[in-house]
Amino acid sequence: TNSVDSAELIDGAVDNSHIGALAASKLTGDIATARMPAGSIVQVVTAVNTSSVTTSATTFSDVMSVAFTPTNASNKLLIRCQLGEPDTATGRGHAICWVGSNSTEVFRICTEFGRGENYEGESHTQNIVAESDFITAASTSARTYGMAIKNNVSGTFRVGNGADHKITIMEIQV
User: Fold this and answer.
1) pLDDT, greater one: 6 or 108
2) pTM of the full predicted structure?
């Protein structure tokens, strides 16, 4: 039969033969992340910025940011940053991914974009994409991740000239 009696409930012996057609509505809802197997993606947050950002500063200027709150301090984070179509006229661009503020670098996206250019005209390239190594979340406190750019020399550095900036953060169950 497709019924379960109290003896089977008590000893935990409910097998597939005792479960008839399981309604799809019973398969929806939240699954506790603690029950997910290691390697499962717990959450993904993506932010997009369509603006062009230009700087001549030799200190970091923010391109964009995204708020993120890990669900478990032991989980790992993988951060992917896409810097939309950078170009230079006279600068050497430097870009980082940061946490908390643009003075706390998580990883470098590029160090000297435009180095070696002759500066007789603008230099354009495709998007620059960089990923972090796996980073331990370390807490479940909300935090902000972002991207910032600066010049390593005097001149100008522009990003987002025709392509979007994106940050994607994945939390992976350990």
Assistant:
1) 108
2) 0.77
